[in-house]
Amino acid sequence: MEYIPVLLNAIQVDTTVGCDLFIQSGTNKETRYVLYCSGTKVIKSDKIADLQKHQVKYLFIRKIDQKIYLRYVESSLKHIINDNRVDVKEKAQVVCDVAKNIMNDVFEDPRSGENVERSKIWVSNTIDFIIRSKASFSSLLSVVSHDYYTYTHSVNVSVLGLLFAKYLCFDGGEMQSFGTGLLLHDVGKTQIDSEIINKKERLSEEEFARIKMHVEIGDDILRQTGCAGSTSFFAVMQHHEKHNGKGYPKGLRGDEIHKHGKIAGIIDVYDALTTKRSYSDAKKPFEALKIMNREMEGSFDDKYFKDFILFLGSGGEQQLQKNRNIFPIPEISTARNGAV
Ligand SMILES: [Fe+2]
User: Fold this and answer.
1) CATH code of residue 278
2) Which range of residues forms the domain containing residue 20?
3) Does any domain span residue 337?
4) Which residues surround ligand 1, an ion (CB under 5 A)?
5) Does residue 107 sit in the same domain as residue 26?
6) pLDDT single digits (tens) 33-83
7) pTM of model > 0.90
8) Shortest CA distance to 78 belongs to which of 67, 69, 86, 68?
9) Ligand 1 centroid to residue 85 C-alpha, Å
10) C-alpha distance from residue 47 to each of 21, 37, 53, 234 (Å)
11) For the chain, how many structural domains are there in total?
12) How many angstroms is it from 322 CA to the middle of ligand 1?
């Protein structure tokens, strides 16, 4: 049986977790896990206080119970974010773990209104976290995933997008609809054959045409599941549009693209380049921005692209250096003459 640690501070008094909690005992050579609290029992404050008195930071759950535990944490995410006992890095980890679990469920059942609703609530809590804590910026950047899966990519894009939106002084309502759109921007891929999505070789014209359909399918899914009426659609519908009109599905150009679409397009490409794929290593941030500037000339809105570079350099520089190696801020040429 495999066990994994869970944060004691994420457990709320007078709640039931839904899965058994264990305490680790024994030595490194012979670790044992002793049942501490059954999943159906209410956890009382004296029990938690007793563990805290003994400097216990982590409890353990069976790995097979991870989904149950993450649903529990999701339900108390607001409390965890507002809990001063929980370290900001731990909060960031919980925020990302919960989001990955939600996105897993979204990708399994994209037409579930409940899953879309969970996505919206997660965005709202994450905005709260970002607004309340300055340190959330570097903490969130340090826990975003560096391996590419459609669901981790969706979480990364949403986290980066929300941080960037804060940098651009979006108000809370706009951050909410933008962040939800980013989280769900690739939801249409669930309806595309996974062999095409994961194909390492060059796609045929028909295959590429099929992939392109994920945008309109995603839009359709969101309309059916209750996201209608918000501006979330712009991130979904326009994240593959390009400034020069060479994108899809509509070939919009310049300011025909909504600012959410413009920003979503930048972050989508940036995250894809800086995470590890089955066919390529993760690029360093500087390298990724250089590729975006030189090899994808004309794809992005100049102003938002420059803002994005300044944003990465402003607060995340140290964190990015630590996590993704060197990040000198490149000089991006407005004339796009390749002089980076
Ligand atoms: Fe996409």
Assistant:
1) 1.10.3210.10
2) 1-65
3) no
4) 186
5) no
6) 999 999 999 999 998 899 989 889 999 999 999 999 999 999 999 999 999
7) no
8) 86
9) 38
10) 12, 9, 10, 48
11) 2
12) 28
